[in-house]
Amino acid sequence: MNCHEIRSSIISHVRRVVVKLGSSVVTTQNGLDRKIINGLADEICSYRNKGKEFIIVSSGAVAAGVRRMKLKEGARTIPQKQAAASVGQSRLMAAYDEAFSLHGARVGQMLLTRDDLSHRRRYLNARNTLMTLLSWGVTPIINENDTVVVDEIKLGDNDNLSALVAVLASADLLLTLTDMEGFMDCDPRINSNACLIEVIDDITPEICCQAGGSSSSVGRGGMASKIEAATKVRMSGIPMIIAKGKTPNLISRVLEGEHIGTLVLPAKEKISARKHWIRYNLEPEGTLHVDNGAVRAIKSSGKSLLPIGVTEIEGEFEDGSAVSIMGPEGTALAVGLTNYSSDELRKIIGRQTPEIDWILGYRRNDEAVHADNLVVL
Q1: Would the pTM count as exceeding 0.70?
Q2: Which string of DSSP letters, residue by residue, matches 200-213?
Q3: Domain of 322, in residue numbers
Q4: 88 pLDDT more than 80
């Protein structure tokens, strides 16, 4: 199929859309851009009447707070950023509420941190809340909880958050609105001859090198973080479109199949929702080094990791924790959930499965990491 046919085929199946708006899209030098927010609400409400569902991941709280408090030097320290977010988030939600109320529609706020998405029960609770809001006809407005977030629980930026939300919600499309026309073949701030790449069918090292930093003074993400987000959603079979957020009638033009922005195609082979959660939501708490036999079993045969294949343990962790799995050359092989704690594993590494019983006095599982809980990188 050509580019037009590919895009038309994808758009024809879109029912649930996650729309991510960067700070540069929803704010101006004077504060929130009400024109953009009102226009977005107009388009979303129009398509909701046609059976489409929308989830908004919106930046702008910190920027709105900075402008409200007239902080000429911006918010530099963590307490300042958290306080600015506190002031700005209420104004951001009020703007969305007013815009949707003009159409008799309702919005609901969800503020998330990494902790909310890394604990399985809280992750599922977040999904249940999201699905309930949609079933009520409410448009969820999601942001990272910048009022309390610190590095340890930080998702990084809303590009990353929007990707995780798209997977959480089983969305059909992630539409990322930014201050660029889409993904360019080089930095247009440096090269005026930069050209738009209309379709990306794979995230290659070349694509990653072409991705630059943030072009905005108010945003945290850049094109690099958008490519990282694309990597996450495409592994779940979700396409992504990167487009300029201040383009008039953008949502309508996208959903009508117009060639606008950059379309990132989903991966040909996707992973399960559970493995996606393990791969992208969890921070490994330790490392298991394995031998060449284990590498072959995991990488080529899709088998579980047995204690006999483990050669060294790094870190302290409990059973059920996420761990990295490294090959003999120190290359990252996989991530997974361990069936044994670090103390237990140190006693049984390199040993045959039947030996676990008499070494530990029990055998919780045959595997150090079961294949169902293991994701090859």
Answers
A1: yes
A2: E-S--HHHHHH---
A3: 284-376
A4: yes
